[in-house]
Every structure is written in structure tokens, then in C-alpha cells.
């Protein structure tokens, strides 16, 4: 299973239920990586999308504790057990966890590949991704060249879990 995230130099990922920065090349990579696949997210992540609508051309699975929550065009699950049962229907490499913080933390143990857009800047933030560089079971297996977007430097880094 995959996890996909854009994080700053402190592994910050968001503030006030929004991304820290929108980098067009990162958005394009996200689209290319996830279109036609299964995306797993929390309710607040879904609600942060334009119109609170599920992402097009993907199977959207939303994890929420609210038993009454429903959204057109998405599968809604209420527990980790339910979520794991739902994603068993798909090949593992087709599943992408896309956030937010609590869903990332819950799903990380089940993931073996992390696609991280690392942004060389420290933002003010209120949500964070676990620091994979501090976890011995995660190793960098691919890195892009550095890119810039205005004055921001970033790179695409692939981490894989080693057994």
C-alpha cells in the first residue's frame, strides 16, 4: 500500500485543514500517481477538497467516526477494521493513503511505499506527518532532482519499508 504526502522540512503537512502550499508540479504528480486508483482519506481531508466532493477518476474511501456521515461518490467506513476490510478488495499497490494526519498515522503501519514531496521550507502548521528519516524501517529508494517553484525548493522522494 502507498502513502502520498507533501511535507515541509519539519514534516509539517497542513494548517487549518489546508495544504501548506500548492505547488503545480506536486499536484500534477499526485494526479498522475492516484488517477484510476483507490484513495483513502479522513472526513476533514475530503471536506477540504473543492465543494467537499470526492476526487474524480478514483475510488474514494473516507474514514470517519461519525456513523451518520454519508457522501455521494465515496465509500464511507467508520473504523480501522472496516477500512482494512474495504481495501482488501483492491490490489495493495493500487491503494493510496492521502491524509490527513490521523489517517496517515493509522495507515502508516500498513504501507510499504511513501511518495513524499519534500519542501525545503518551514511553515507554521498544525498537522504533521511522521518523520520517516527517523524510522530505521524506512529507506529512501529514489530521489528526483531539486525543483523550484518561485523561491521554494522541493524534491520528490520515494521511501520504501525494508523488512
Strand and helix layout:
Elements: E1 2-7, E2 12-15, E3 18-19, H1 24-34, E4 38-42, H2 43-47, E5 59-63, E6 74-77, H3 80-87, E7 95-97, H4 101-107, E8 113-119, E9 127-128, E10 138-143, E11 147-149, E12 152-161
Parallel strand pairs: 1-7, 1-8, 4-5, 4-7, 5-6
Antiparallel strand pairs: 2-3, 2-9, 8-12, 10-12, 11-12
**Could you name the ranges where pLDDT drops below 50 across 5 or more consecutive residues?**
none
Oligomer: single chain
* Topology, number of strands: 12
- What is the count of structural domains? 1
Structural class designation:
alpha/beta
Judging from the principal axes of the Cα atoms, what is the shape? globular
The average pLDDT value, as a whole number, equals: 97
Share of helical residues = 10-25%
> Under CATH, the topology is which?
Dihydrofolate Reductase, subunit A
At CATH level 2, the architecture is: 3-Layer(aba) Sandwich
Count of separate DSSP helical elements: 4
Work out the strand percent: 25-35%
State the name of the first-level CATH class.
Alpha Beta
CATH superfamily: Dihydrofolate Reductase, subunit A
Query: What would you report as the Rg, rounded to the nearest angstrom?
Result: 15 Å
State the end-to-end CA separation.
15 Å
The run of helices and strands is EEEHEHEEHEHEEEEE
Q: What kind of sheet is the major sheet? A: 9 strands, mixed
